[in-house]
Structure formats: structure tokens, C-alpha cells
Design brief:
This protein has 506 residues and is of the alpha/beta class. 53% of the residues lie in helices and 13% in strands. It has 18 helices and 13 strands. It has helices at 9-18, 33-47, 60-73, 90-99, 107-115, 140-151, 168-177, 211-233, 243-258, 264-288, 291-303, 308-315, 317-331, 337-348, 360-370, 392-404, 437-444, 464-505, and strands at residues 23-26, 52-56, 81-84, 102-105, 124-130, 157-161, 182-185, 200-207, 353-356, 376-379, 409-412, 427-430, 453-460. The strands form two sheets. Strands 3-4-2-5-6-1-7 form a seven-stranded parallel sheet, sandwiched between helices. The longest helix has 42 residues, at 464-505.
Length: 506
């Protein structure tokens, strides 16, 4: 039984690999990873008709989306398909497990049932893990894969991702955790993919950081430099100070203090590191986001200053000068030039658009600026600590309106990057470049699949926007090099294994 779907050449090739060996499929968003999973599942049922298929996705809406795709493309009585979530009573899940042929779930739900011995994986003939780049460390994907290999009588694993990252060690870990024997990689520029892709236009638009902003930055930079220099003098920080190195240092110091090391130098280092991280974040908001975001952030630091170190930070004369200058800009409604540039872009061409930005405060400000020009809506995750948020039901309603054309512009955080069934758009705007190859690939995959599309990246000159843009660019190139090497190594290992077996038989 085959669904009425015309497979693309690259999909056929990938399915041919996936039905034979544990396979990691690296394919940009919108190029049919779920269809590959569907045909691989059909193949397993044809070979092992009394087995089960387990399809995992990191969120309940995404798992539900995959269930909908399978139901749409398989006859009603082909298999019993169920969505397993924490909302279903555990006893009921246990009963359903016995009769269900294809289970769609989150890894947390299945891992929990495995730990409590409610279910077993003996009869599962295919484990599909979507967004497989999450299969690291203590994430439940890793636990389920491990138990699957232990328990299943006929194991086969299919990992799906738009990007597993750009670090060789990370990619190796993902492959080890999923027992990967074959890697199938495609980009929009692969020879067997090109015929199916539409023209993609890219544009970088650079804006100048206004002089008033540079004055604020100089105040904040002085505070930041003082903290960094003191940490260096105390022999706590040896590498270049970046967001990542500071967070790593903070983690190591917390670990040391928790283990009983209460040396004054370490305690002082914790204070300095925490203050440096806060000021670094303030500089990032100033350079790349909006005055509204920065004003809210500095105000919250002042309001929440209860400890001696926090009070010392907000009482610093440079901090006070920065806050006064930002408050003046805020009250005069002077904003980041990116916001004006956004208005110019959308005034020219009102198209189906997704604007990506990292911070919820910025997204709220963008919506306020764009409302007179276009029918736009924010698209964010669930509410956290009183911040702006949408329930999963509200998210689904917005997607439905976007699909129908009732909304023509989504202003989204990272929730719009991964997995969700958002319609293809004409235009993707990066409000700021992201240094992650995974996130860059996922954002870009929202356009130029079925019709021509465009990606615009806004960059503030002379800021971390520029370094983040090039970081993602080089990481993406590095990722494909590492994956190519890995594929070659896995194929060579398989060939040697077959030769050894042949010699043994001979």
C-alpha cells in the first residue's frame, strides 16, 4: 500500500537508505522529512505487520501535526494511530499502548512510562525522532533511544533534523546516541534537490548605530570593562570575554561554591561575572534590539536590586548615566533604526512575511510599529514569569489565521523556527542575525520552497550583529563538511565490515 504522493528523487534515495540502516536525515525545513518518515514506516509495516511504530517530536503540537500528516495520507483502517500526551491518564496510556500501531508522542511522556515500566519497546520496529539535534546529554530522546536498542527485537532508528549543529563532537554524540549507521544530507543546493527549489533572493540591510546610542554604549562598556579586568586580575578569566565564556565561567564557579569552596576570590568572582553578564546583555539590547527593550531591562535591574552587589551595580555612576540617557530616548520615542527600516520594507511590499526576533519585548515593539501598515500578529511561546506568552490553543488559532490570509505578517521568536506547520512565506526577515547554524537554517527554510522567496537580514554596523552573521555563515559551511566526512567514514566502516564477513564466510 502506497499513499498517493509523488515522491521527489532525493526523497526516494533517502527512504532507500532509511529502510536498511539507522539513518540520520539532515534536510532543510519544508523539504519533506515527515513524508520520508511516512514511507519508512509503511516499509516496516509491510515487512513486520504485527509491529509498532513510535514517532517522537519535542512538543505536543508538533507530535499532533505528524499524526495529522499520517492520517491524511493513510487509509482510515490502515493502522490504529494515537497521540500520547501527559494529558491522557497513565493507566489509559498503558491500555492504549497494547492496541495502538503508530504512537505519536513527546520523548518526556514515553520516557516517563518506560521508567515506570508501564510500556515496553519489544514490538517497536521503527523509532522516529524528529528534531534529532536534541538527542544529547540527559534529554529524554537519548534515554528512549537507549532503551529502544536494549528492548526491541527488530530495532531501526530514523533521526530527522534541519541541522545537527556545527561542532564535530556534538554531531558525533547525536550519531552515537541514535546508533546512526548512515547519514543522508541535502541542502537546497544539492544536485537532486535543485530541480524542486524555487529562486531564493538574499539581502543584507545595514543600519548605523545613532550617536546617542553610542554614548549610552560607552557608559555600559566602561562598567563591563572594569568587571572583566578585575576577573582577569583575580586569575578567574583567561579567555576572551564573550557571552558564552562568561556563562561557562559562571557555571564552573557555581559548581565550585556548591561543592564547598567558599574562598573570597571565588565569591567575588561570582559577583563580577553576574554583573558582567547583565551589562553585556544590556549592550546587546542597545546595539541590536530596541530602546524599549533596553529601557525595560535597565528599569527591572533597578527595581529588583535587593542584594548589596545588585545595589552597587545600579548605583554605579556610569549605570546611572546610561539609564538617564536611555530614559530620555525612550520618553522622546527615539528608537533603533532597524524599526524604521522594517517599516520601509513592509511599506514597499506587503507580502506574506515572518519577522524573527529573539526577545519578546522587541517583538511587542515591532508589532506596535507595524500595526498601521499591515495585519500583523505576534507568535511566541507559552507565558513565563508574567512575560508575554501564548497558550498552545492561541498559537494554533494564529497559525490558522495566517494560513487563511487573515494575518499577513507574523512577528515570531524562536518558536517559529522549529517544526511547526507554518505556511510558506514570500519574505523572511531576520531582525537580528543569530550565531547558530541550526537557527539560521530553520529560519531560512520558511521561504522559497514552492514559490520564489526572499530573506532580508538587518545588521547594525560595528556591533555583534556583524560577528553573529558571519559566525552562523561559517558554522553552516563547517556543518556540511563534518557531515560529509562522517558519511564517508560510516560508509567505509560498513564496507570493511562486509569485507570482513565475506572473508570469514570464504
Amino acid at each position: 500500500m502506497q499513499p498517493d504522493i509523488k515522491l521527489r528523487e532525493y526523497q526516494r534515495a533517502i527512504i532507500d537508505s532509511a529502510v536498511k540502516r539507522n539513518c540520520l536525515v539532515v534536510l532543510p525545513t519544508g523539504m519533506g522529512k515527515t513524508i520520508i518518515a511516512l514511507f519508512t514506516a509503511i516499509n516496516r509495516f509491510e515487512k513486520l505487520p504485527n509491529s509498532k511504530i513510535l514517532f517522537l517530536a519535542p512538543t505536543r503540537p508538533l507530535a499532533s501535526q505528524h499524526l495529522t500528516t499520517f492520517k491524511k495520507n493513510l487509509p482510515e483502517l490502515y493502522a490504529d494511530m494515537q497521540l500520547f500526551t501527559g494529558k491522557i491518564n497513565s493507566k489509559k496510556r498503558q491500555e492504549l499502548w497494547q492496541t495502538t500501531d503508530i504512537i505519536f508522542s513527546t520523548p518526556q511522556c514515553i520516557a516517563n512510562d518506560l521508567r515506570k515500566n508501564r510500556i515496553g519497546l519489544e514490538d517497536v520496529s521503527l523509532l522516529i525522532e524528529d528534531e534529532a539535534h536534541r538527542c544529547l546529554k540527559n534529554y529524554d530522546y537519548t534515554y528512549v533511544a537507549e532503551k529502544y536498542i536494549e528492548q526491541s527485537r527488530m530495532p531501526l532508528i530514523l533521526g530527522l533534523t534541519a541541522s545537527p549543529g556545527s561542532d564535530k563532537e556534538t554531531i558525533d554524540n547525536i550519531c552515537q546516541n541514535l546508533r546512526i549507521e548512515r547519514v543522508e544530507i541535502r541542502s537546497r543546493y544539492s544536485e537532486d534537490v535543485k530541480p524542486y527549489m524555487q529562486k531564493l533572493e538574499t539581502e543584507i540591510i545595514k543600519v548605523e548605530l545613532p550617536e546617542e546610542f553610542k554614548i549610552v554604549r560607552s557608559y555600559l562598556q566602561r562598567i563591563y570593562t572594569k568587571k572583566i579586568e578585575e576577573m582577569q586580575k583575580r586569575k578567574l578569566l583567561f579567555s576572551r570575554a564573550t557571552k558564552k565564556t562568561l556563562l561557562d565561567l559562571q557555571f564552573r564557579m557555581v559548581k565550585a561554591i556548591s561543592s564547598g569552596n567558599k574562598h573570597f576570590n571565588l565569591l567575588r568572582g561570582m559577583v563580577l561575572c553576574s554583573q558582567a553578564i547583565k551589562i553585556n546583555h544590556a549592550i546587546e539590547l542597545l546595539e541590536t534590539q530596541s530602546i524599549n527593550s533596553l529601557h525595560n531591562y535597565l528599569k527591572s535591574l533597578i527595581e529588583k536590586a535587593k542584594t548589596k552587589s545588585a545595589i552597587n551595580l545600579v548605583n554605579d555612576k556610569d549605570f546611572s548615566s546610561a539609564y538617564l540617557a536611555v530614559s530620555k530616548l525612550y520618553n522622546e520615542n527615539i528608537e533603533h533604526p532597524k524599526l524604521q527600516k522594517l517599516k520601509e520594507i513592509l511599506k514597499e511590499k506587503i507580502k506574506k512575511t515572518i519577522i524573527f526576533s529573539q526577545y519578546r519585548d522587541t517583538i511587542s515593539r515591532i508589532k506596535k510599529e507595524l500595526e498601521p501598515l499591515t495585519n500583523c500578529e505576534i507568535f511566541v511561546g507559552q507565558q513565563k514569569k508574567g512575560a508575554l506568552g501564548l497558550s498552545q490553543k492561541e498559537q494554533a488559532l494564529i497559525i490558522e489565521k495566517f494560513n487563511k490570509g487573515e494575518i499577513n505578517c507574523l512577528i515570531s521568536t524562536s518558536i517559529g523556527e522549529e517544526g511547526l506547520d507554518l505556511p510558506e512565506v514570500n519574505l523572511v526577515i531576520f531582525y537580528e542575525p543569530v550565531p547558530s547554524a541550526i537557527r539560521k537554517i530553520q529560519r531560512s527554510g520558511r521561504t522559497a520552497r514552492l514559490k520564489p522567496g526572499k530573506i532580508i537580514t538587518l545588521i547594525t554596523k560595528g556591533t555583534r550583529d556583524e560577528s553573529n552573521y558571519w559566525a552562523a555563515y561559517h558554522k553552516e559551511k563547517k556543518m556540511y563538511r563534518i557531515l560529509d566526512d562522517l558519511r564517508g567514514n560510516l560508509d567505509a566502516a560498513k564496507k570493511n565490515q562486509q569485507l570482513d564477513l565475506k572473508r570469514f564466510i570464504d
